[in-house]
Each structure stands twice: as C-alpha cells, then as structure tokens.
Design a protein that fits this description.
single chain, about 300 residues, mainly beta, 13-stranded antiparallel beta sheet, two-stranded antiparallel sheet, 21 strands, about 0% helix
C-alpha cells in the first residue's frame, strides 16, 4: 500500500534485534513480488532450547541532544524442549537540539526561530527563546515482544508475537512552511503508529534428501494516521489507514557439495487496506467527511507466487 519502509521501520524494537540483513537483487525473491528492489530484513532474538535456566537483561540510555530516555528489559527461559523470550522497551524522545558550530559561516542556518502555540482555540506564532532547539519534534514509543520455541522429534515450532505503539509523531520538516507571512501549519502530526504481528513457523528437515523445510504463516495489523490543521483554521483533518497483511510461505532448501545452494517454494499474500478521513471543528466539535488517501470503500490485493533461487 506504500513504497518503502518510510517511518514504519521505527516500530521494530532495536533493543531486541539479533541482526539485520540487506538483500539485493534476486536474493529478495523469497519475500514476494513487492521485494524486487531488495529487502531490509530485521531478525529479532529467539529463545534458546536446551540450556535449562532463566536469564535476565536490562539496559537504559540517556541522550543529551534530545533529552531522551530509554528503558529495556527482557527475560528468557530455556528448558529441555521449549523456551520463552519476553521483551519490553519504552523510549521518550524530547525535542532535538542542534549544534552551534556552523563552520560554513551562516550563523542562522537551520535555526528554529518560531513555533506555534494554541490556547483557547487561538493560534499564535511564538518566538523561540533557543532557536537551536527544534520545538515540537519529540515523541514516545512502547514495544512488546513474546516468543516461544518448541522442539519436537520432527522439527521446531516458533511462535512470534509483537506489539508496538507510539504517541503522535510531529512532522517537523513542514514547520518552516509559510503562508501569507505566517506559519502555514498549526498542527501536522503522524498519529500513533500501531503495529501488531502474530506468526507461526515450522522448521524441519528431510534427511533422506538432505533438504531443509520451512513454513511460516503470519498476520500483521498496521494503523497509521495523519493529523493536520492550517494556522488560524478551526478545522482539523484526520486521515486514518488500517492495513491487514496476511501471508504464508513454504520453502525447500538444499546445499550441494560443489557449493551450489538451491531454494524453491511458494508464497501467498493478502493485503487489505481501509482508509477514512474526517474534518473536526476544534471550536464546536462538529464533524464532516474529507477526502481519503486510498479508496474509501477499501481495497485489497492477493498474490500467489512460486519461486526458485540458485546461488554459489
């Protein structure tokens, strides 16, 4: 429903990542027809089976440029035949602060001299007492992850549950736009970004032919919105998109003695997009319909693909 990750990539918790793969060219064909240009693949940590015990991890961070604070904790239980990993992260990002050294000689380059305040329904352009601070660029985010791994005589089952949400995320890059000598926008925010994911993966092998078999079924729910109101206007426009993504794939992989690797499989996908938009009067709370970004009756795309990949 869009091109590229854009800001959606921030809904993956960096504190629980194991690694990130960048796949270019035909290597991305495993991920479906929309991955022709390549794939950025985030791998979150998985619990480990067979290590009997409980391990705890905790971390915190503070960053002075935006007065941000982050806390993270995770607990992993490992048993003989099953394991669990539970993770929590919360981050609060304050307004960004620019450096004061402008070696190119333009002392006012990039300064944020004015920001908008709204009191009693009246918008006012306020002079920024510290133009190096980008007023209105902060937000916060919370991430949860739960994984289970079960070892059976025939293979391994992985259950992956993820949830992420944020506050409004200001679109700071439009705050410099002007209209009739005043700021153009009183509000321009990405609404809370909410993402949930549930997937089940089964991995096994076919010893007779030395073939690895993997199958995954997953569903994602993504909500994003745009909230904007022009300076001096009583009408706030809210555009909301809800996306449901169902996917399943199954692959067979074999490594030959001459170094040749072969992968083949099938991929099934179904994307469903619901889009709505409305205008709200900030004075009277009256509401009216507005134009949506995507078809307001909903839209869907279904894919079925077979693929094969050889590399050495």
């Amino acid at each position: 429903y869009r091109s590229g990750h854009l800001q959606n990539a921030i809904t993956v918790d960096a504190n629980i990542l194991e690694r990130t793969d960048v796949l270019l060219g035909p290597n991305s064909i495993l991920f479906g027809s929309d991955a022709m240009g390549g794939v950025i693949h985030y791998h979150t940590r998985s619990p480990r089976v067979g290590q009997d015990g409980v391990s705890l991890r905790a971390s915190t961070a503070y960053r002075s440029p935006n007065q941000s604070a982050m806390v993270h904790g995770d607990v992993e239980y490992s048993g003989r035949n099953w394991a669990s990993l539970t993770s929590f992260s919360h981050a609060q990002y304050g307004d960004l602060r620019m450096g004061t050294w402008r070696r190119h000689g333009d002392a006012r380059w990039g300064l944020d001299s004015v920001y908008v305040m709204t009191e009693g329904g009246v918008d006012t352009a306020v002079e920024n007492s510290d133009p190096n601070v980008q007023v209105g660029s902060g937000y916060d985010q919370t991430d949860l992850l739960q994984k289970f791994r079960m070892q059976t005589p025939r293979g391994i089952w992985d259950v992956n549950l993820q949830w992420s949400t944020s506050s409004d995320i200001p679109r700071y890059d439009v705050t410099f736009e002007e209209k009739n000598g005043a700021p153009k926008w009183a509000e321009w925010n990405y609404g809370p970004q909410r993402r949930s994911l549930a997937s089940v993966r089964y991995g096994s092998s076919l010893p007779r032919w030395d073939i690895a078999w993997n199958s995954t079924v997953a569903v994602q729910s993504i909500e994003e919105s745009r909230i904007k109101r022009q300076f001096g206007s009583d009408w706030r426009e809210t555009q909301t998109e809800n996306v449901r993504v169902w996917s399943a794939y199954s692959t067979l992989s074999k490594r030959f003695y001459n170094g040749l690797n072969a992968t083949a499989g099938i991929n099934v996908g179904w994307d469903d997009v619901q889009s709505k938009a409305q205008l709200t009067n900030i004075q009277t709370e009256a509401m009216a319909d507005a134009d949506t970004r995507y078809p307001n009756g909903g839209s869907a795309m279904r894919t079925l693909a077979g693929f094969a990949n050889l590399h050495k």
